[in-house]
Design goal:
By secondary structure, this protein is mainly α. The protein contains 2 helices and no strands. The protein is elongated, with a radius of gyration of 18 Å. The termini are far apart.
């Protein structure tokens, strides 16, 4: 995020917005502009992709335990 701020791709957020807003809207309203909203959306998507294999493994383990009973 620091490199994106220094390169001018995303703006510096200047205000605290409510946390109940969706990520991209929150980024835009916080003062970071559209680039910051897109960054928040990309970070959320990356987080989902990173956690998916672990959730899938846990689901398979639970399915094996359930079928063993």
């Amino acid at each position: 995020m620091y490199l994106l701020l220094k390169a001018g791709i995303i703006g510096t957020p200047i205000a605290m917005a409510s946390s109940f807003l969706p990520g991209p809207i929150l980024g835009f309203l916080a003062g970071g502009g559209i680039g910051f909203g897109i960054f928040i959306l990309a970070a959320c998507l990356f987080s989902c992709v990173a956690y998916y294999p672990f959730v899938k493994i846990m689901d398979n383990q639970a399915l094996k335990e359930e079928s063993a009973e």
